[in-house]
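agent> step 3/5: call structure_predict on target 'Lipocalin/cytosolic fatty-acid binding domain-containing protein' (Moschus moschiferus).
agent> reason: downstream docking stage needs a structural representation; sequence fetched in step 2, passing through unchanged.
tool.input:
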Amino acid sequence: MKFVFVTLVFGLVCVAQETATEIDHSKVRGEWRTIYAAADNKEKIVEGGPLRCYYRQIECIDDCEYLSLTFYAKEDGRCEKFTEVLKRQEGDVYIIEFAGTNVFQIIHVSDNMLVTYIENDDGEKITKITEGVGRGDSFTQEELQKYQELNSERGIPNENIDNVIETGKAPEDSRYPK
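tool.output (status=ok):
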């Protein structure tokens, strides 16, 4: 199992080195809301799935040496608020323990759109996940196209994209249907 995890981290470090220069850390900070989620194992991210998360806030600390994530997720059937502070690893990846071990990376950021890539190892299977978050409640056509390209590059079928705004809800956010 450790070999699989080390291989996973090494693979993400290699990918991160290719894309790290694209990330403008000054654009990461602030309020973000989950708009889309996609996974190669869609059961992980559907409503009630163990990795269905609703982002609220992302903060870069010390030029993103540390990343503070505030999000909602269901735990034991209840929606819970989480705030996790992650330390950057080599290659601009972060590790978070949540429903398994997750290697977390910001793969795209612009003024109104941020995309994360996560590889979740639950001890049985590795699941690839992207989450498209925004400062508004939707993506432009160009932003959606960029999100779809990022999914394709990582082997995540675009038919597995879930519009979180349309299919889910989270506390304290009127943009999600009740």
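agent> step 4/5: record observation. Strands lie at 30-31, 33-39, 53-61, 66-75, 78-89, 93-97, 101-109, 113-121, 126-134, 162-163.
agent> proceeding.
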